[in-house]
Amino acid sequence: PFDTSTLxxxxxxxxxxxxxxxxxxxxxxxxxxxxxxxxxxxxxYFINNENTTSPSVLTFNTSDNSWLKYSSIxxxxxxxxxxxxxxxxxxxxxxxxxxxxFTTIQDVxxxxxxxxxxDTIELSCVLKDAIDGMLRVEYSATLLPNGIIVYMGGxxxxxxxxxxxxxxFRIVYLYNTIDNTWxxxxxxxxxxxxxxx
Length: 197
What we know:
- By secondary structure, this protein is mainly beta.
- The chain has 2 domains: 1-130, no CATH class; 135-197, no CATH class.
- Helix content is 2%, strand content 35%.
- The chain has one helix at residues 15-18; strands at 32-37, 43-48, 57-61, 66-70, 74-75, 87-88, 93-98, 102-103, 109-110, 114-119, 124-128, 140-143, 148-152, 171-176, 181-186.
- The protein has a 5-stranded mixed β-sheet with strand order 5-11-10-7-6, with no helix packed on it. It has a 4-stranded antiparallel β-sheet with strand order 1-2-3-4, with no helix packed on it. It has a 4-stranded antiparallel β-sheet with strand order 12-13-14-15, with no helix packed on it.
- The mean pLDDT is 84.
């Protein structure tokens, strides 16, 4: 069992010299999204937002305490913001639901958002369409053992500050990582919350 009675704190050697703080997107511009991955699942990936002056991905390897920056990712540049909940699957792919309008590095505007799938082993990224109704930020996301990601709740990125999305928890959205399909799933019960996550 995992022992929580004595949790060690380990300082990262030379962190002040090697941490690329100036290369992380600021919180005011949307910040970054972070998740783990790599061949041994021992690397933390920090994915910057649309700011093209910053590297698209920064990594910290927990095995050797090294930082790397990647300005070029093959196929598509991923977008990460602090309002996104990245999910890493069992194959080292990070799923980033961009539930807001954005413009790709190729200058294509995506008014309905999209799903970035960043392969942490191949260092490549693809952009897939999201299902209608998925414009949201600050949502909850969970990966199930069968490879399905459940998305629920969140806030409307176009509405007034802090307004929950209309469907709240009455509809959850299922994304199948194996065949790239979406399915809205109505929920039922007497006490379904109306608020956000």
